Amino acid sequence: MGFFDSDIVQQEAKQLFEDYQALVGLGSKYGKFDREGKKQYIEQMEAMMERYRIFMKRFELSEDFMAQMTVQQLNTQLGQFGITAQQMFDQMHQTLERMKGEIEK
């Protein structure tokens, strides 16, 4: 069975995408959130990034050809922007930390 043939992988990918889209949509109203709403949004984004990091690690560890191709495609796409996957996660973490700092002011 291939990596993408797994019902678990398909369901997690679908759920990650749907949850991410919902958070992005919600993020467009971030400026209107009260302090507690901003905290909750940041916490949800942190949880989303961790889920995504774990999901991508599964791709990296898989010996499945299509999983490896997916990792390579992501690396190629990010490379066009001059960053690695780790740098992408680091930048997102820094952004969320900056957002937390702004809430505390």
Automatic annotation (TrEMBL):
Species annotation: Zarconia navalis LEGE 11467
Q: What is this protein called?
A: DUF1825 family protein
Q: InterPro entries given for it? A: DUF1825
